[in-house]
Known about the structure:
By secondary structure, the chain is mainly β. The protein has one helix spanning 7-11, and strands at 15-18, 23-26, 36-40, 44-49, 54-58, 85-88, 94-97, 110-116, 119-126, 129-136. 3% of the residues lie in helices and 38% in strands.
Amino acid sequence: MSTKIRRDETASSFGHYDDAAREYVVTDPRTPTKWVNYIGTLDFGGFVDQTGGLNICKKDPANNRITGYKIDTPQNAMRGNTLYCRIKNADGTHTVFSPFFTPTLTPYDKFECRMGLGYNKWLVRMNGLEFEIKMFVPRARRRW
């Protein structure tokens, strides 16, 4: 007996499919497990999740990892790669946060991670700022 899960049942809590754009859109980064996308080519690329965690590889990912990454690491685990933003408050103190949600876990006004064919794009609004981040690996140029 086979159990089929409808696409909208699995996706509705954390995002949705955008069929026209051919993307999965994660709207809540606190998914039960990391949602991973492959970006790059057969020569160079890696896996990127909705929180910005990544594993970059040259050719075979099993043997040629450039950066470390574990898919089963908790969402809030600190990792070495992320973006930070620091803003100065009216009282002279500073607020530091990340548009990738982890590691700072700062509440957001809007969060979208669009996972397309070979790229991830984040659209995040928080602390009065808006971020648009696109992660991809460009194709190699021909040398003439």
